[in-house]
Specification:
This is Amidohydrolase family protein. The chain is an alpha/beta fold. It has 12 helices and 10 strands. The structure holds zinc ion (ZN). Zinc ion (ZN) binds next to loops.
Length: about 350
Amino acid sequence: MITKQEFVKKEKYLKLNKLGDFIIDYDGDLNIIDFHTHMSNVLPLKVVDPRAKGNILKYKTLPNISNMDLSVPYWTKHTIDNKKKGLLSVLKFSSEGYTIFKDMTNGGTYENCFKSQEENKINRNIVLPISSKKYDRSLESLKIAKDYPDKFTAFCSVHPNDSEIKEKLVKYKTLGAKGYKLKITDLELKNNFTPLIEAFKICYEIGFPVLLHTGSLTHIDKKDTSKLMWKLLQSTRVEIFGELLNKLPKDFKFIFGHSGIGEYKLVAKYLKQYPATYTELSCQSTNSIQYLINEVGYERLLFGSDWPALPQSITLSRVLSATEDNQQAREYILMKNAEKLLNI
Ligand SMILES: [Zn+2]
């Protein structure tokens, strides 16, 4: 059984802080915008005041150290005993998701955020609210950016089935939102993508780039799952959203969140097809980031971490190793591309 200390010894750009959390190990100067972050009050659960003190973040999304493999996207070892069959596994999967959201809601405080920004040399977080049909978290996100304009930039999020979506998006733009974020599945949309396309068109009209959670997990095989579980795992696959792009203007600014996790090669294909699209790198590995740079160049790649679901350091350390011989690519991926895209 390997310890966390032994694990980071083998990782050039990672070390542990006093609490045993992963932080970057890098001495030079860096300028960084983290394009994919959340906070304690922007998720579709009961909100926690971000000013709360003493809340401990556990990073429940990270695999156990014995199951961690940073050379693959999502950093989880592929094991043949990873079977997810039967209804129980679906329930377990949903409850794991809930546990992760709970941890993010508890730990996504200013105190934890500023500590992480400092330890990882991060100048600014883009805050992505996740709204559901029931809860619109955009105003919470805007409040954070208003409280600390030097540290945060806000996106907004409105469910595509919200009857007031247009009025809301226009309003959020005047309040300072810089883009639109959504986490949605084909199951939730019941395979009717018209409302989503309409939402994208409104964003295009008012000049919002759109970031969606995209991608499927790769460490689970189809043969090891039930039909329902597989549907669930495939419900945010890259193809669903990539295919919608041909219904939108060529200069529609779409960002593939997580670079499609295990489906980053398909993301590269869409980036070639749609020159105004971008890809955000949270959960990717050194190799997959290098692959994306080779295939589409570095000017449409955006560093993101998915904090507080994941430590800011891990994807950051992957970007640093993927750009060891390319200082310019590093600067663009870590900050310049984001500045240009959001005009900040
Ligand atoms: Zn996220």
